[in-house]
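User: Hey, my collaborator sent me this sequence without any context and asked if I could get a structure. I don't really work with proteins. Can you help?
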Amino acid sequence: MDKLISLFVFSALSQIVVSHVHTETSFRANIELVSEHSRIFSGERARLRCSIPDVHRSNWTYLWFRGSEELSQTGEELNLWNTKVQESGKYYCQGTRNTKVGKIRTQQSVPVELKVDGGWAILQVPRHPQLVGSTLEVTCRVRRNPRLEEIILYKDGVEVMRQNGHKPDFYLTNLSLEDLGVYSCRASWDVRRQTLSVISAGTHVQILEVLSQPILEIIPNYDTQLKRMKLTCHVQYNAPAPAPPIDFYFYKNNRRLGPATSDNYNLVKQTPGLYSCKARVPQLDLSKSSEPKNFGLRATGNFPPAASLPRFPKLSSHQPIQFTPVKSTPSQGPPLKTSQPVPTTLLTTDQVFNSATTQDQANPFEEPGDMSGDSADSL
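Assistant: No problem. I've predicted the 3D structure and written it out in structure-token form, which is a compact way to encode the shape of the chain:
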């Protein structure tokens, strides 16, 4: 009798334990920052939304995390009212629901970073990387929106441009990789015959090429029966959606192996030679070729050694915003040389403006190509 009771208790405990095991599904939650910018002033509001790619439209409960900390909200949206600097961080979300087999969870979303600035100036830049040749718009915001007299844009501490404060937006046209860097802005305005100036924290601007230089990967003995190897042309293509089609070409000893293809690979006869590939976007008039890669040739020249291929990032799916360039108008204030670094005596955004509140003053901040040659190698 005692054995039967013990078995019954053990069986019941086993069911209790099993019912609390969390099973992770193949779904990954998606997180979206509903607010326009990821960098905001303290005291402002931020909104984040979580969604589950579930075609069955099941009823999900949402879990929210800031770093490793689980938050108390469980709704589809996370609303942060009157934000504080301490609420800066990387936010995740995750879906969970009860089923007949127990509670299941989705995979955590890719993080979204929110920065809450406790200072007085913010340089707002687009959340997504920008593309070479496009136009970048940045905005210098000042807390409580005083009437600005002048704003200056800096890149890596060096002045890029300046203009009067009536237009806090800067436009950088025809971007290149040289425009990569950390940007900040300085804003100045007058209060009771005093000139006040603030500098924002630095913000990194990322710029990508539409088409990166391809890298050719050679996989020998891919088809042992037909003695063929596989050529794969790895490239990062960052065109905004809808992206024009991309064509791939493969070469042996600078002679093309067959016609262009929309696939980034080709199966060819396994014979010695110098192989390369080219990626081309006809509609954008863009094309780039890989470095030639030696296969099976005696290393009598400066051929690159066959090395293991690094991992490649996934193709970007962002859609950069296009802006109309606006000509900047310099102010009539004291000139600064373009090589002059950011003044170190200015108040930063994390400092309190004691100078404006002294002496009992009120706070003023109330291809087409040749088809000849070696085409038989692609068979």
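In plain terms: The helical segments are 2-19. You can pass these tokens on to your collaborator as they are.
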